[in-house]
Specification:
single chain, 368 residues, alpha/beta, Rossmann fold, Rna Polymerase Sigma Factor, Chain: A, eight-stranded mixed β-sheet, 12 helices, 12 strands
Length: 368
């Protein structure tokens, strides 16, 4: 599989929903496969909160493949022998696109907390500008899970002529109070960590010494990504063998696992990006700027494939089902298909249990 990573620089302003502008800005993206002569085989993959443009394959020296490697590649559901696949790192992230630690032109100082609040609409608008520059004015499909699903739905509503199909997994039409509450706890942990220093921390320093607030934020998020069943299967009530049961700070295996994930997260994700992207997720509401969900979904001209997971506690299946039911109510039933996957894994099933839904994605890409 041919993998290409590129950075595009833009000097024209990106007008944001907040009324502010981002100028200049950069987007890093990765492509897989070959673009055909009439550019009709483009499939766009959109990533979730902590994802990046590196969705598949491995770089030289890497031990771990891209975050959706099981889905993207030769003879895989998103078949790179047939499709030209693009994944763009969203603005606000910390993997190469312009974000809070990028220099604020014309100075060399980072934006930090002066970076503008961004929304999913802004993320999508920036990508749309990139595709125009690349001469791609039409995509076959846009596919994403979780925050990636928010982007896919946003594309369908706000850029209705751009793609023929939108495949949305484990997502929602509006972030619920339940999900916002999880993000609130995580965000407060970061903001109130003394080492955060009101956003003026040294990135190298926290990678060496850690940032407890970001670790706690990751733990909080991780709980929402799994289900009680998965926690039971992974850890049960097992206790760390080297810890004493009656030691105050002795740990159950689930606690040790959360410690590990929290501490490791600081090594590869940035606290400011975490704050800005969780804010964008909290703001997301497909009804915003419309009178109702019916009004917003009325803009859609493409076919939707909506895939939920029965044990998802972050974005409940009923939220995805509501999109389908609303499409049916407004006379667009032929454009919408809803499938609830039976799963005990939780929200992260869209990343882990690929065998349960890969055939649905493959068929959706085939359908005319």
């Amino acid at each position: 599989m041919k993998i290409t990573t590129k950075v595009e620089k833009f000097t024209s302003p990106l007008y944001l929903e907040s009324g502010r502008i981002l100028e200049p800005y950069e987007l890093i993206y990765e492509t897989y496969g070959e673009l055909n002569s009439d550019k009709s085989n483009v499939v766009i993959v959109t990533h979730a909160l902590t994802g990046s443009h590196h969705a598949a394959g491995t770089y030289e020296g890497d031990r771990k493949a891209g975050w959706w490697d099981g889905m993207i590649g030769s003879s895989k559901p998103i078949d790179t022998d047939k499709f030209f696949v693009i994944c763009v790192n969203v603005i606000g992230s910390c993997f190469g696109s312009t974000g809070p630690l990028s220099p604020k032109h014309p100075s060399s100082e980072s934006y930090r907390l002066k970076f503008p609040v961004i929304t999913v609409t802004d993320m999508v608008r920036a990508q749309r500008i990139l595709y125009d520059r690349l001469g791609i004015h039409k995509a076959l499909a846009i596919i994403g899970g979780s925050m990636g699903g928010m982007q896919a739905l946003c594309f369908a509503i706000e850029h209705p002529n751009f793609a023929s199909k939108h495949i949305i997994l484990a997502s929602t039409y509006a972030t619920s109070p339940w999900a916002i509450a999880f993000n609130k706890v995580a965000r407060e942990a970061v903001i109130n960590d003394p080492l955060f220093k009101d956003g003026m921390y040294d990135p190298k320093e926290i990678k060496n010494s850690g940032l407890a607030g970001l670790s706690i934020g990751r733990m909080c998020g991780y709980i929402s990504y799994l289900s009680p069943d998965t926690m039971e299967k992974k850890f049960a009530r097992d206790y760390v063998s080297t810890d004493g049961l009656y030691e105050l700070f002795g740990r159950f295996e689930v606690e040790r696992y959360l410690d590990y994930n929290g501490l490791n997260f600081v090594n590869w994700f940035d606290p400011l990006s975490f704050l800005y992207i969780t804010k964008a997720i909290n703001i997301f509401d497909a009804r915003r700027n419309f009178d109702s969900l019916e009004d917003s979904l009325s803009e859609i001209k493409s076919n939707l494939t909506l895939i939920s997971f029965s044990s998802d506690l972050l974005f409940l299946p009923c939220e995805m089902k509501t999109i389908h039911q609303t499409m049916c109510e407004i006379g667009k039933s032929k454009q919408s298909k809803y499938i609830e996957i039976e799963s005990s894994y939780g929200h992260d099933a869209f990343l882990v249990e690929i065998d349960k839904f890969s055939h649905i994605v493959k068929e959706a890409l085939k359908e005319r």
